[in-house]
Design brief:
Number of domains: 2
Structural class: alpha+beta
Strand order of the largest sheet: 2-3-6-5
Radius of gyration: 25 Å
Number of strands: 8
Order of helices and strands: EEEEEEEEHHHHHHHHHH
Distance between the termini: 37 Å
Helix content: 55-70%
CATH architecture of the largest domain: Up-down Bundle
CATH topology of the largest domain: Formate dehydrogenase/DMSO reductase fold
Number of helices: 10
CATH class of the largest domain: Mainly Alpha
Length: about 425
């Protein structure tokens, strides 16, 4: 493996490194010598990450205390996974600098460089909007499959909702690509389109993003396909496309640090799918389907739908809890200490509080008002209460999906650098 094996002698007591080191989802585990150490200019220094790196966006420049570049050999990035820690390695001189966390990996900052807060904030906002749009599109597809006797007007309305949500999701996903590129390259979003090509063709994120875009395009085409294709078949294939898009998100998340198609990546994919199903059903049903059914459908059709809704939401919630516990345990490294001593843990606490609120609201509907809707000759009072609580739960769901976006942009509590 190539290293910085030649440093000019007499360059000063400390070798200072600037540039960018970006893993796709990894954290610096060891540095030798340690960052900031006052040492003679070393022959070479090794930085070991616990995840793969993005070679196209990783670089090192070694300079002496006066700022003069002294390295004569370009740092080589080795993206290979090395057992047993699945580590990517960057070899180069690293004395006198430190690594700082950004939402998408470790970045070695030049002196005085600061991540634009607006870029990070914009990235979080776009991710939150994308989470809500994805959930609404999934929920609308599931509602179409659950509505056996819905009017053509209701079916057409749901299919339009799917199409609008997915088209808007494509726009949000493109914006997310620009923010991601800005965070990796250090430029302002959209300021330097020349870096988009290596981002798409030479990075792990680019491969995952491109796969997700293809899935979204297929999803849009299915949502506007002629009725001759059959509603159940179209929605089923559309949900498969949604699952592919969800996996592209998992492949560019914290879970990707464990490796492509690893167990953490699959479990996070299931968590994304289950959360979208649970949240999407609640949001679309509370804000669109249930008001329409109360105005158009019979009491029997209404009772049939809310029964299916409650069962599907309960099943999705169970999957969310199982996969969420696994993700939380991995993010906290099996310890409860980071819950109170890391930003990731505090945000996770907020998300858990919102999930508990949604469970309580859903439980009230399932245990109190659903039996009344099924028993009563007149469903108006019970259905009205069910709908009011469902709307409140939909608001909580939007909060859960937004909090998930913040978590995705925060260093996990399992890493000491994320502790406060």
């Amino acid at each position: 493996m190539s290293v910085f094996n030649r440093l000019r002698r007499g360059c000063g007591a400390v070798a200072i490194v600037s540039g960018v080191l970006i893993p796709s989802a990894g954290f610096a585990q060891t540095q030798s010598p340690s960052a900031g150490a006052e040492v003679p200019a070393p022959e070479n220094v090794t930085v070991v990450f616990d995840g793969p790196l993005e070679p196209a966006f990783s670089s090192l420049t070694v300079s002496n205390s006066t700022g003069k570049q002294v390295n004569t050999v370009k740092a080589q990035v080795d993206p290979r996974r090395v057992a047993p820690v699945a580590a990517g390695q960057v070899h180069g001189a690293l004395g006198g600098r430190r690594l700082r966390w950004t939402p998408y990996g470790w970045r070695l900052f030049v002196q005085g460089e600061v991540v634009d807060p607006a870029t990070i904030t914009g990235s979080i906002i776009v991710a939150a909007i994308a989470n809500v749009l994805f959930a609404c599109a999934v929920g609308a597809c599931l509602a179409v499959l659950m509505l056996d006797n819905a009017s053509p007007r209701m079916q057409s309305r749901l299919q339009r909702i799917v199409a609008v949500c997915v088209v808007t999701l494509i726009v949000a996903d493109i914006a997310n690509l620009l923010f991601e590129t800005a965070l990796k390259s250090g430029s302002a979003p959209g300021a330097d389109f020349s870096v988009l090509i290596p981002m798409l063709t030479q990075s792990h994120y680019g491969a995952a993003w491109s796969t997700g875009l293809v899935a979204l395009i297929v999803w849009v085409l299915l949502s506007v396909a002629p009725r001759a294709f059959g509603r159940p078949a179209r929605m089923t294939v559309a949900l498969l496309a949604a699952a592919v898009f969800a996996f592209s998100k998992a492949a560019s998340s914290h879970a990707a640090g464990a490796g492509d198609f690893s167990l953490p990546e699959w479990i996070h994919w299931m968590h994304i799918c289950a959360t979208a199903a649970w949240g999407g059903l609640v949001i679309t049903s509370g804000l669109l389907v249930l008001p329409g059914l109360r105005a158009e459908a019979s009491g029997e059709d209404l009772a049939h739908f809310v029964g299916r809704l409650s069962a599907a939401a309960a099943f999705a919630l169970l999957a969310v809890l199982i996969t969420g516990i696994y993700n939380a345990n991995r993010g906290l490294a099996g310890s409860l200490v980071p819950l109170a001593h890391s930003d990731w843990g505090l945000i996770l606490n907020a998300k858990i509080g919102l999930v508990n609120a949604a469970i309580v609201l859903g439980g009230i509907n399932r245990l109190v008002y659903l039996p009344r809707i099924r028993r009563a000759a007149s469903h108006s009072a019970a259905a009205s209460s069910f709908q009011t609580i469902l709307k409140a739960e939909a608001v909580v769901m939007i909060g859960i999906l937004s909090t998930a976006a913040v978590l995705a942009h925060t260093i996990p509590g399992s890493h000491p650098s994320g502790w406060s």
